[in-house]
Amino acid sequence: MMMQKWRRSGDFIRFGCKSLSNLRSKENSMSRSVSGFVNRSESTKGKIFEPNAGNYHNTELDHPCLGRNLGIMQQYKCFGSSSASKVQRNFLFSTAYVIINVGLMNKVLAFDEVSGVLVCEAGCILENLATFLDTKGFVMPLDLGAKGSCHIGGNVSTNAGGLRLIRYGSLHGTVLGLEAVTANGNVLDMLGTLRKDNTGYDLKHLFIGSEGSLGIVTKVSILTQPKMSSVNLAFIACKDFLSCQKLLVEAKRNLGEILSAFEFLDNNSMDLVLNHLDGVRNPVSSPENFYILIETTGSGETYDREKLEAFLLKSLEKGLVSDGVIAQDINQASSFWRIRE
Predict the structure, then answer these.
(1) What SS3 class is residue 183?
(2) Are residues 257 and 295 in the same domain?
(3) Residues 87 and 53 in one domain
(4) For the segment 6-39, what is each residue's pLDDT rounded down to a tens digit?
(5) Residue 230, SS3?
(6) N or C: which end of the chain has fewer CB within 10 A?
């Protein structure tokens, strides 16, 4: 029998909804500030509340938004743009709603250097988690262009794939547990840290990729990986899409255990990058229809680089690759990733 711990919760929702509903009863405008919260920011149609860590499971009261026709939407920072505006478009026809921002819930709660399991709050920025793990000799299994602004809770809620999915898989495989607040204010505690867990229904998978439709992710436990000493990156040009597909198959077969990323972009994407980003240039000598970034990560610098070079030479002989270059240092590698990200 599977056991789940349920707790009544909702302080940060309860006070916000009461304040908002009081405003709504007096006037249609949502321009007044709502007291009772550490941080708050105004939006055009709703209020954005930012709870402190832990202040959402102290109440036994029923959720006040129920029956008041108040929508609830979590806000995770993503891609450097205003999440609030995206929420407003989602609730374009709503009379009023509450936006919950988890940005202040940004603490690392635990890290096990034996198992590599990280437990953190949903408001942690992905890049900050990567920096923390780097000091411990580990890496996040998830990496993406918006890592400097996106929250891990948002990554989980959208099941973000990231740049190294080919190596570490999706979040369905790396997220070991989570905590979520449901719409009625209950906290569902599924914050397990055991990788091999066959104790029953694995309900966390319902929340991964649910985009907040079932509840707000507030905590995450995720399996991280040891940091490898050897990283190589190649930027490759291909004439047609079929060659890109064949190159992927060959990369899986020939690079195998060291293949960590295989990223694709076409010439239209390259033109946009070259025209709108300062200091960016095409790494290959002549333009092509398609481009591929191949990254390898392993423990033997010489062996890994020789293996990558042999693979590229073989691909060139087969006509799968028309041109390519291997990054010689971290600066050149960063310039390659800047094009893709």
Answers:
(1) coil
(2) yes
(3) yes
(4) 333 344 444 444 444 454 444 443 322 222 333 3
(5) strand
(6) N
- Tell me the one-letter amino acid at 106: N
Specify the number of domains making up the chain: 3
Q: Examine the domain organization and report whether 68 and 157 are in the same domain.
A: no
Instruction: Please tell me what DSSP assigns to residue 144.
Output: -
The rounded distance, in Å, linking the Cα atoms of 246 and 315 is: 9
Q: What is the CATH number of the domain that holds 142?
A: 3.30.465.10
Instruction: Assign 69 a pLDDT band (cuts: 50, 70, 90).
Output: low
Beta bridge partners of 151: 125
The CATH number linked to 236 is 3.30.70.2190
Q: Name the packing angle between helices 241-254 and 301-317 (round to 10°).
A: 140
CA-nearest of 143, 106, 337, 125 to 224 is 143
For 320, residues 6+ apart whose C-beta sits below 8 A from its C-beta are 238, 243, 246, 247, 250
Q: Does residue 91 sit in the same domain as residue 127?
A: no
Domain residues for 249?
230-340
Answer yes or no: pTM beyond 0.90. Answer: no
Residue 92 vs residues 95, 178, 225, 271: alpha-carbon distances, Å: 8, 30, 42, 35
Q: Contact at 8 Å (CB) between 69 and 115? A: no
Mapped onto helix, strand or coil, the DSSP state of residue 98 is strand
Report the alpha-carbon distance of residue 62 to residue 287 in Å, rounded. 62
Clarify whether residues 151 and 193 are in a common domain: yes
Q: Which of 47, 1, 5 is nearest to 22 (CA)?
A: 47
Q: In this structure, how many other beta carbons lie within 10 angstroms of the beta carbon of residue 158?
A: 17
Q: Are residues 13 and 57 in the same domain?
A: yes
Total H helices, total E strands in the chain = 11, 16
Please check the confidence at residue 93 and state whether its pLDDT lies above 50. Answer: no
Same domain for 112 and 218? yes
Do both 329 and 237 map to the same domain? yes
